[in-house]
Write a structure and sequence with these properties.
Number of helices: 7
Structural class: alpha+beta
Helix content: 10-25%
Bound molecules: FE2/S2 (inorganic) cluster, fe (ii) ion
Distance between the termini: 32 Å
Order of helices and strands: HEEEEEEEEEEHEHHHEEEEEEHH
Oligomer: single chain
CATH superfamily of the largest domain: Naphthalene 1,2-dioxygenase Alpha Subunit, Chain A, domain 1
CATH class of the largest domain: Alpha Beta
Length: about 350
């Protein structure tokens, strides 16, 4: 077998943009690395877990999961939104099994009951158990943040504050949730993120989208842990008219796609080393017409299918043994470079 390009032997070390290679292909197929990413990437980063509108009143709660840990996001009697581990301290049963509203949270296994802030209030027939103190038991908490009507949570207490993640990015407008669409894709989650982080592929992969955007004015800005891609809309399109498309990526797997009157969020969730699930949530301005919503969702689906086809082909290329790593284009793939730099840092620390 001929290996076309070899990355530097110390591929884990930081690489200047001008001479950077992609991550080695092995990073996209290795189950051991996928397991390590759960701790080194997902358990230590901010994850989009839902939207705030249905969580407005005390007791409102919604299920989520971060790095395999079941979470319940719940509004307390004090108005504070919390992200509690949805794992009972008795024998690990589920405290909450569906979204809704409740005055207290009662475990579905033996009925231990928790307050909305996670403190254990009562445990049936445990009164005579030696050295058992209800007051000493509570559900662990993740960090939680609200931004532009969206809810984020971070499992590790030592994760950097959410404000540091989004510093320099304008908050998305708070729009109204319309629909969730879920795609399972036969590629490593990083292939999907890599693809998102560059507009280099637009002309080849997305003829329809390409015609809608002004590619000469396509811009990419990098933050410490975010990438913002913007393009003026050509304004010749019947669906969107004039305006600006803004594509925001937040480390490691959250995307916010903003067009006039519409926000679409994407979460890229690993299923295993070579498969991921991409969750699309659509939000619209209340005045957005039904025809606009339908046309927008149909067009997004078309673009998504184009991305899925190329990402799955890339995964086959990465897995086949023909390829090790390739050079990045510093003018068009600086977002991919930042993502890979952050991954290298996470792998070094994890
Ligand atoms: S596991 Fe929750 S009450 Fe037993
Ligand atoms: Fe694409």
């Amino acid at each position: 077998m001929t290996v076309a390009v070899s990355p530097a032997a110390d591929w884990l070390q930081p690489q200047p943009l001008d001479t950077a290679y992609t991550l080695p292909a092995q990073c996209y197929v290795d189950e051991a690395l996928a397991a390590r990413e759960r701790d080194a990437v997902f358990a230590r980063s901010w994850q989009l877990v839902g939207f705030a509108a249905p969580l407005g009143r005390p007791g409102d709660h919604a299920l989520a999961e971060i790095a395999g840990v079941p979470i319940v996001v719940v509004r307390g009697d004090d108005g504070v939104l919390r992200a509690l581990h949805n794992v009972c301290r008795h024998r690990a049963g589920p405290v909450v099994t569906c979204d809704g509203r409740a005055r207290t949270l009662t475990c579905k296994y033996h009925g231990w009951t928790y307050a909305l802030d996670g403190r254990l209030l009562g445990a049936p027939d445990m009164g005579r158990v030696r050295d058992f103190d209800v007051a000493g038991v509570s559900l662990p908490q993740a960090q939680v943040a609200e931004w532009g009507g969206l809810v984020f949570a971070a499992l590790a207490p030592q994760s950097a504050p959410f404000a540091a993640l989004i510093e320099g990015i304008e908050a998305p407008p708070t729009l109204v949730f319309e629909r969730r669409v879920v795609y399972d894709v036969a590629c490593n989650w990083k292939v999907y993120v890599d693809n998102y982080l560059e507009g280099y592929h637009l002309a080849q992969v997305h003829p329809g989208l390409s015609a809608m955007l002004t590619s000469a004015a396509y811009e990419t800005r990098l933050g410490a842990h975010w990438v913002l891609q913007t393009s003026p809309l050509a304004g010749t399109d019947d669906v969107y008219g004039p305006g600006t498309a803004r594509y925001v990526w937040l480390w490691p797997n959250t995307m916010l796609n903003l067009l006039p009157a519409r926000l679409q969020t994407n979460r890229v969730l690993p299923l295993d080393a070579q498969r991921c699930r991409v969750v699309f949530d659509y939000y619209y301005a209340p005045q957005a017409a039904a025809e606009f919503r339908a046309a927008d969702m149909a067009f997004s689906d078309e673009v998504q299918r184009e991305d899925i086809a190329i990402c799955e082909a890339v995964q086959r290329g990465l897995a086949c043994g023909s390829y090790v790593a390739g050079r990045l284009n510093p003018c068009h793939e600086q977002g991919v470079w930042l993502f890979h730099e952050l991954l290298r840092a996470a792998y070094r620390s994890g």
